[in-house]
Design brief:
The chain is mainly α. The protein has a domain of about 90 residues: Cytochrome c-like domain (Cytochrome Bc1 Complex, Chain D, domain 2, Orthogonal Bundle). The protein contains 6 helices and no strands. Helix 2 packs across helix 5, helix 3 packs across helix 6 and helix 5 crosses helix 6. The longest helix is centred in the first third of the chain and has 16 residues.
């Protein structure tokens, strides 16, 4: 009964009860499922244009747009990483196939600091970063 009055006041005043913390693993799994639904049948297939993309261009784009959070080698340990919640993903061990990584770069990751680069970078640079990420995993 004691909780009823404060909660009623909170709702009556236009507020809402605090939402429970989001489990990072559950959020990541839901995001991966959404990316897979977006990519569709090409999820596990080679991505057209990635093999021909220039990894040197990808390295330059990565250094400018990704390194601050994901670090020099993609381990999620960039200089901005300690301030981010949730922390940046480790690109070397991600469970995403190449098509998923490209989709993530294009669309970003809701609820994280990962921005959407689909409208910020031309396709050749998106493909080049995807190619460069392949090299980070090797």
């Amino acid at each position: 009964m004691r909780l009823f009055v404060p909660l009623t006041l909170l709702v009556a005043c236009g507020g809402s009860p605090p939402s429970p913390p989001v489990d990072p693993a559950a959020r990541r799994a839901a995001w991966h499922a959404a990316l897979q639904a977006e990519v569709g049948a090409g999820w596990d297939q080679p991505v057209p244009g990635v093999d021909a993309a220039d990894p040197a261009v990808g390295a330059e784009v990565y250094a400018k747009t990704c390194r601050g959070c994901h670090g020099d080698r993609g381990a999620g340990d960039g200089p901005r990483a300690p301030a981010l919640n949730p922390p940046p993903g480790n690109l070397r061990t991600t469970a995403l196939p190449e098509a998923g990584r490209l989709a993530a770069i294009r669309a970003g990751s809701p609820g994280t600091a990962m921005a959407a680069y689909g409208k910020r970078l031309p396709d050749d640079q998106l493909l080049a970063v995807t190619r460069y990420l392949r090299e980070l995993r090797d």
